[in-house]
Task: inverse folding
């Protein structure tokens, strides 16, 4: 029954959310890849990203001549009420400083600004709400006017940075300040002013997609990207962080523009080559979003030196903050462009061995994000050529994946299952069901993976259940000596499949019933 | 929505008439309704009548049902395949628009019975239109919900929530696609916040209100509906809103689980229905969103646990317990299994959760007695609804995954304790033994399984001391539920029972076939059937392959067969087992394996024919009927082959019922009937009786072949006739008659397969002398069709047919007969169709046939050996090699499947589809038995051809064969040690 009795093909998935999916029994989409970001987001923005989305600026930027003055000038954390009173006073003084004229006026302004900034940066809980209520933002906007001194701009931007680091509603009060903050990102500003403004803009961008759209519409992308080219490490780092907040999407327009800006890719490469792990971390986040949202960006990145650098970082570092974006970026690249597996990770080249070792290292990690991302990246490499499958299969990854499949958290189980499934099949072209690599299949089953797949069939998650069914199909069709059906039966697989006997999802129902009929139906047991 | 009152009155009159006892009046009313249905506005009139307070409630209800059915059938559906053919019968767009505007409000004001019909009608329309083409629906629901909430009208809120629940149900089971996510996002934006508001305010109402069960029931229903919607909206991903408000939801969920409501409230069952919905949600969160949920895990495990241990008066505690245990199982299998890992916790789970739920309960006993089909389905087959005892065992298995030894020790002690209780008081404690056996089955380590099982007892001694005595007991009819469990144990353990032991037990088990309990005799039949197909794996010495051979063969069981057959026959007379598929399947298996002779053959044939006559009156059980025909095929096949003298007996008993199937047009049985006929023709000796010749007439009817499910069976029958009486074809214009049918079948894509099937059968079985007057006409029909139809499927079938002609009648006949249609036509066909399509042929027999035929053309056909045809020659060779290379890559699996691709499309719950009878014989045979390996045939043929003119073919190959294929060809030459010189 070449076509007739195979499980009904699931509907073709959008390329944005399908795995590189050799295991799929259907005719469609065998080489499509699953991108990280769902085109339609239902859940919260990812937590790892959220934790770093907004940052309070506590100490002066490096290179600023203020560092000396600040020492010994701590705000004593007194009672909340006292702090609030002082903040309201500071805003009042700021207001009056605006109207003061003549000699000493500038000094007065700076002092008022500095007083407010200290309260906002050196209190354990910055008194943002009071400052806003007292009317700080419109005043600060006036302090940002063109022609102001660098010192004034710096203090003002610092205040705004920390107000923007507050609650969502507090961040939104910065709307009137955005055009000027963006204007001061440009080349005419001093590096320090630009960097501080970038920080403020980064906090605003971290708030959510509405404010991101506003910033993009007001032209924040280009000056931030230029700022990332800076040779000064902290400036490049802050700009990269702010950029990564700005380009999160879900609209891919920003990343598509970013990758077209001259020098961006070179700056990414330059920064990933540097020893500075903090800088590399921020730049890696930029790579994450570029590779999550833009075909064009992926295509350029995979043909650059970036993959090598990411792999080297992944292998060498033990810093979780760095490893997460590096691994995710790498995963996006592998999923996003066949070139990565076909032409970069060539079996036999040392880069491929390094990539595999680094992924195995992550599989063994205690951190669940790393384990999940590594399984995901491996699943996409495992969808590559027969040689890739063989390389992974013979490595330490296989027993690790079998272990994850049977014992890890739900989402990791699922990724491990994709990988193991992909190790067992090679695509047979666009119209035929995939061919089974019997040796791999038998060994993975004998290694104890079948109960894990049967459990997937029982899963409340319909995608997992489908994956489980597809794997059972492979076992029944391809396990040596026709013993597959008996193995599945012994592992309570029939029982698991019968759950779909009257299921509402027609494709699943047909697939499960078709399999039970084909392998346990009338001719089962006859010669 | 204005409908004239007189129209409503007319409609109401018709509906009243449809309930009339007078058949003529009823038919007239139905006629009026169905003719009115085609006019625009009909659906609106139905809806108006359904919601018209001044009309009779019965007529309104009938109108609402009719309305629902109209919407289900005629609401325009987005159909990408056939946009045009849907439109005719669809409701007019204007009517749809009006329905969408009014249905929600009408639903809310309707009486309950009508409301539920309108609710289903709404769901039918929404399935196609919501949300993209019905953007007012969700806002209307939300607005009305707000009104219901502010006026405290819980029943109205429930109607709205029920409608919303049906809209959102799609998110539970659909695949995660972007389209689905867009719809979900829309629903979340509109509904997540109002849902929480209704949920919280209703929950407050519950906590504050006095315990009047009548008043509380809608409140519990409301909360349950909210919880069910929660599940639907959370199925795809964890939505941001729900993550942000998790604390609020979980706090209420926990309260429902931990609060005991006054006994009259609990006795109503509504609180447990709510709790079951909550447990489903916990299970979902635990499985998919464990990271976000983990903070709540401990308190919920305690709450659920407490629930399972608390005594209750609730009638729906059983279903709740299943969902509750399922939640605990997910926890036990998760990374948080350590919550249950202490010896105390495990002992408590075993004693307080598992064991109490293992024992048979009153409702199990009731189901065993009154609804045996459902009992067997749930107990033995596994189904979508878990039984409590199965859920309990699954929890144990889940625990055993991480705590194998501990679980084994606990269960082992438990089993001994239960057996001891039974030994102490057999009459009263048989349920203890039943539970013990159930437990052992559930944790049985199946041979060869790589995990999951937990050995809790020594299986051999358990079998000998616990199971066998029950089978051999003198009072075998007592305690039927225990006996059923014993038989189920046998089935699960069948591989491990030594053959001699099993055969020795067979008479005892056969007794149970006549047990008056439907479950017990079904289980006995299931066991025997399963036992007979036990396979042993035999290692082939020195090779890595193993073969599987049947453990039980005819000689082993023939001495028991008569008793088993008679017992099954008896059981088929028991109430509620007249169409028991388990009994019939067992009968089929015994008849298929055992050798029977003498009186029993007559008896069982008569019995089967009698049953068939009976089911012809009302075929309703496809499985039973399938096994019934298989049983007949098995008797005819096995006994008829041994003793040809029986054939007239079979004919005499079967003809009347088979003819009835044809005459009364019992279409689902046609494919079976033709297969049985074919079997009988194969067994008979010519000259064939008049009955068969009449049947041959049926074969020559266009209408017969027009039913695709029948065609494979008809082909078998035609082939049987052609083999027995090839000369009859030439008489009475039969062959031209067949060709008329062929032309009609080939003219439509849906029946062209049948046409080729028929023609292939003719060519295979009829000599060229008979065919030659007609072959030109056949070609011209096919080539005419080819001008308008060049689909791969058609062209491939044509290549197969031409190959068949070439192999059967010789390449010369093929070429010359095609060229009679038009000079040089063969070469054109070869170049344009044969060569390119050869690479696409599928199916091992088809591949063998076409490659051998192509090879013969290369080496034997003057047309191709002409020097001017060098390029064609090279390209044909190229295609052959390409086809070989592709099949190598496809691997072995497709080859196994390809042979019977065309004629086996088993679908369950068949309307009419072809179902092959296994016991009626094999369908295909290989025409080319003399060619063992087509690759070898190719290279050796080429080698001897080239030896006749050395140096001629090398350059042709060089020039016209693709380099990759040339390489493959050279490899083949090397492999078979042949040379093209």
Result:
């Amino acid at each position: 029954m070449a076509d007739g009795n195979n499980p009904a093909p699931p509907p073709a998935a959008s390329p944005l959310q399908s795995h590189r999916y050799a295991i799929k029994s259907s005719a469609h989409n065998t080489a499509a890849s699953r991108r990280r970001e769902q085109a339609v987001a239902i859940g919260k923005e990812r937590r790892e990203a959220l934790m770093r989305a907004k940052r309070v600026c506590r100490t002066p930027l490096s290179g600023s001549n203020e560092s000396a003055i600040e020492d010994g000038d701590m705000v004593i954390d007194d009672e909340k009420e006292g702090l609030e009173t002082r903040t309201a006073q500071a805003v009042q003084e700021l207001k009056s400083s605006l109207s003061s004229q003549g000699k000493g006026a500038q000094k007065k302004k700076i002092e008022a600004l500095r007083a407010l900034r200290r309260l906002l940066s050196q209190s354990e809980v910055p008194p943002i709400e009071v400052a806003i209520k007292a009317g700080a933002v419109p005043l600060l906007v006036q302090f940002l006017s063109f022609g102001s001194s660098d010192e004034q701009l710096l203090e003002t931007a610092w205040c705004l940075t920390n107000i923007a680091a507050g609650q969502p509603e507090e961040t939104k009060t910065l709307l009137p300040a955005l055009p000027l903050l963006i204007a001061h990102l440009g080349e005419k500003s001093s590096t320090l002013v630009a960097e501080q403004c970038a920080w403020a803009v980064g906090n605003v961008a971290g708030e959510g997609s509405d404010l991101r759209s506003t910033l993009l519409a007001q032209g924040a992308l280009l000056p931030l990207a230029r700022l990332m080219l800076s040779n000064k490490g902290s400036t490049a780092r802050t700009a990269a962080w702010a950029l990564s907040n700005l380009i999160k999407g879900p609209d891919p327009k920003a990343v598509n523009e970013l990758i077209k800006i001259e020098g961006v890719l070179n700056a990414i490469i330059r920064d990933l080559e540097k020893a500075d792990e903090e800088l590399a971390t921020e730049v890696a986040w930029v790579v994450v979003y570029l590779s999550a949202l833009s075909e064009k960006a992926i295509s350029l990145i995979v043909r650059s030196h970036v993959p090598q650098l990411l792999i080297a970082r992944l292998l060498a570092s033990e810093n979780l903050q760095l490893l997460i974006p590096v691994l995710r970026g790498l995963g996006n690249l592998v999923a996003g462009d066949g070139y990565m597996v076909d032409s970069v990770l060539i079996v036999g080249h040392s880069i491929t061995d390094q990539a595999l070792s680094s992924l195995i290292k992550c599989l063994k990690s205690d951190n669940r994000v790393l384990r999940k991302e590594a399984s995901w990246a491996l699943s996409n490499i495992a969808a590559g050529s027969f040689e890739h499958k063989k390389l992974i299969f013979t490595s330490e990854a296989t027993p690790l994946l079998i272990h994850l499949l049977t014992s890890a958290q739900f989402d990791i189980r699922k990724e491990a299952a994709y990988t193991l499934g992909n190790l067992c099949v090679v695509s047979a072209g666009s119209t035929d069901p995939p061919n089974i690599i019997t040796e791999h299949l038998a060994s993975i089953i004998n290694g104890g993976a079948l109960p894990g797949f049967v459990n997937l069939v029982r899963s409340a998650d319909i995608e997992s259940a489908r994956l489980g069914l597809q794997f059972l199909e492979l076992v029944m069709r391809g396990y040596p000596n026709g013993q597959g059906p008996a193995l599945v039966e012994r592992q309570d697989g029939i029982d698991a499949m019968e759950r779909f006997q009257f299921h509402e999802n027609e494709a699943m129902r047909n697939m499960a019933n078709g399999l039970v009929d084909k392998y346990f139906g009338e001719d089962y047991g006859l010669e | 929505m204005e409908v004239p009152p007189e129209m409503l009155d007319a409609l109401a009159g018709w509906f009243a008439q449809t309930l009339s006892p007078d058949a003529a009046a009823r038919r007239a009313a139905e006629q009026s309704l169905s003719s009115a249905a085609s006019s625009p506005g009909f659906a609106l009139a139905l809806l108006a009548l359904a919601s018209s307070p001044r009309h009779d409630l019965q007529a309104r209800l009938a109108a609402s049902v009719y309305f629902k059915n109209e919407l289900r059938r005629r609401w325009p559906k987005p159909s990408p395949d056939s946009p045009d053919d849907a439109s005719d019968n669809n409701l007019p767009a204007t009517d749809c628009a009006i329905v969408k505007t009014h249905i929600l409000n009408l639903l809310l004001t309707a009486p309950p019975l009508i409301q539920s019909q309108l609710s289903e009608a709404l769901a039918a329309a929404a399935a196609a239109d919501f949300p993209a083409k019905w953007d007012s629906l969700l806002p209307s629901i939300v607005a009305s919900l707000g009104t219901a909430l502010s006026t405290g009208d819980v029943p109205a809120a429930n109607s709205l929530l029920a409608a919303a629940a049906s809209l959102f149900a799609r998110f539970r089971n659909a695949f995660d696609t972007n389209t689905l996510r867009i719809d979900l996002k829309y629903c979340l934006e509109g509904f997540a916040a109002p849902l929480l508001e209704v949920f919280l305010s209703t929950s407050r109402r519950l906590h504050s209100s006095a315990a009047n069960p009548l008043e509380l029931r809608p409140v519990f229903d409301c909360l349950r509906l909210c919880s069910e919607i929660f599940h639907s909206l959370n199925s795809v991903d964890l939505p941001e809103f729900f993550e942000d408000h998790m604390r609020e939801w979980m706090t209420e969920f926990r309260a429902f689980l931990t609060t005991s409501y006054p006994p009259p409230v609990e006795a109503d069952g509504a609180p447990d229905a709510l709790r079951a919905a909550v447990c489903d949600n916990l299970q979902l969160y635990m499985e998919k969103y464990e990271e976000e949920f983990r903070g709540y895990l401990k308190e919920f495990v305690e709450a659920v646990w407490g629930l399972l241990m608390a005594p209750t008066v609730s009638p729906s505690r059983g279903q709740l317990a299943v969902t509750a245990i399922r939640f605990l199982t997910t926890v036990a299998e998760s990374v948080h299994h350590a919550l249950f890992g202490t010896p105390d916790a495990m002992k408590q789970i075993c004693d307080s959760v598992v064991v109490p739920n293992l024992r048979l309960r009153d409702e199990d006993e009731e189901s065993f007695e009154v609804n045996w089909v459902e009992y067997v389905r749930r107990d033995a087959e596994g189904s979508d609804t878990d039984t409590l005892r199965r859920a309990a065992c699954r929890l144990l298995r889940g625990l055993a995954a991480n705590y194998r030894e501990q679980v084994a020790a606990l269960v082992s002690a438990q089993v001994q304790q239960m057996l001891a209780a039974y030994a102490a008081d057999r009459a009263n404690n048989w349920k203890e033994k039943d539970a013990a056996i159930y437990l052992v089955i559930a944790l049985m380590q199946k041979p060869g399984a790589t995990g999951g099982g937990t050995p809790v007892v020594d299986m051999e001694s358990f079998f000998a001391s616990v199971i066998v005595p029950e089978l051999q007991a003198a009072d075998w009819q007592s305690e039927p539920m225990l006996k059923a469990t014993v038989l189920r144990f046998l089935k699960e353990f069948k591989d491990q029972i030594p053959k001699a032991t099993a055969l020795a037990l067979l008479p005892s088990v056969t007794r149970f076939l006549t047990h008056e309990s439907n479950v017990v005799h079904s289980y006995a039949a299931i066991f025997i059937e399963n036992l007979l197909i036990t396979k042993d794996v035999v290692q082939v010495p020195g090779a890595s392959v193993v073969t599987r051979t049947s453990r039980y063969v005819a000689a082993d069981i023939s001495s028991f067969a008569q008793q088993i057959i008679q017992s099954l026959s008896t059981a088929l007379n028991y109430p509620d087992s007249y169409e028991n598929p388990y009994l019939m399947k067992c009968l089929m298996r015994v008849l298929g394996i055992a050798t029977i002779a003498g009186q029993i053959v007559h008896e069982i044939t008569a019995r089967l024919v009698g049953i068939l006559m009976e089911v012809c009156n009302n075929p309703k059980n496809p499985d039973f009927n399938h096994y019934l025909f298989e049983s007949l095929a098995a008797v005819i096949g096995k006994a008829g082959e041994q003793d040809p003298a029986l054939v007239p007996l079979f004919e005499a008993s079967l003809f009347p019922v088979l003819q009835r199937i044809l005459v009364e047009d019992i279409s689902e049985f046609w494919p079976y009937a033709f297969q049985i006929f074919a079997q009988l023709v194969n067994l008979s000796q010519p000259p064939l009786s008049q009955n068969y010749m009449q049947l041959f007439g049926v074969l020559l009817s266009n209408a017969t072949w027009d039913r695709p499910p029948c065609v494979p069976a008809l082909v078998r029958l035609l082939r049987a006739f052609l083999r027995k009486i090839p000369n009859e074809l030439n008489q009475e214009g039969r062959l031209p008659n067949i060709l008329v049918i062929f032309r009609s079948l080939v003219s439509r894509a849906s029946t062209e397969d049948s046409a080729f099937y028929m023609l292939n059968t003719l060519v295979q079985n009829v000599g060229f002398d008979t065919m030659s007057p007609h072959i030109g006409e056949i070609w011209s029909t096919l080539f005419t069709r080819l001008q308008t139809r060049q689909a791969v499927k058609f062209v491939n079938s044509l290549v197969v047919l031409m190959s068949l002609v070439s192999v059967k009648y010789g390449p010369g006949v093929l070429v010359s007969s095609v060229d009679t249609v038009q000079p040089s036509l063969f070469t054109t066909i070869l170049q344009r169709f044969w060569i390119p399509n050869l690479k696409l042929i599928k199916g091992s027999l088809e591949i063998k046939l076409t490659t051998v035929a192509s090879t013969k053309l290369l080496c034997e056909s003057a047309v191709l050996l002409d020097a001017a045809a060098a390029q064609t020659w090279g390209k044909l060779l190229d295609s052959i090699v390409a086809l070989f290379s592709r099949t190598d890559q496809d691997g072995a699996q497709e080859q196994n499947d390809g042979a019977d691709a065309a004629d086996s499309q088993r679908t369950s719950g068949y309307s009419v589809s072809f179902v092959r009878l296994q016991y009626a014989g094999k369908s295909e045979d290989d025409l080319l038995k003399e060619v063992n390996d087509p690759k070898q045939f190719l290279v050796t043929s080429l080698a001897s051809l080239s030896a006749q003119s050395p140096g001629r073919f090398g350059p042709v190959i060089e020039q016209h064969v693709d380099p990759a294929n040339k390489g493959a060809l050279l490899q083949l030459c090397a492999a078979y040690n042949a040379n093209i010189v």
User: Anything to note?
Assistant: The mean pLDDT of chain A is 83. The longest helix of chain A spans residues 80-99. The longest strand of chain A covers residues 425-426.
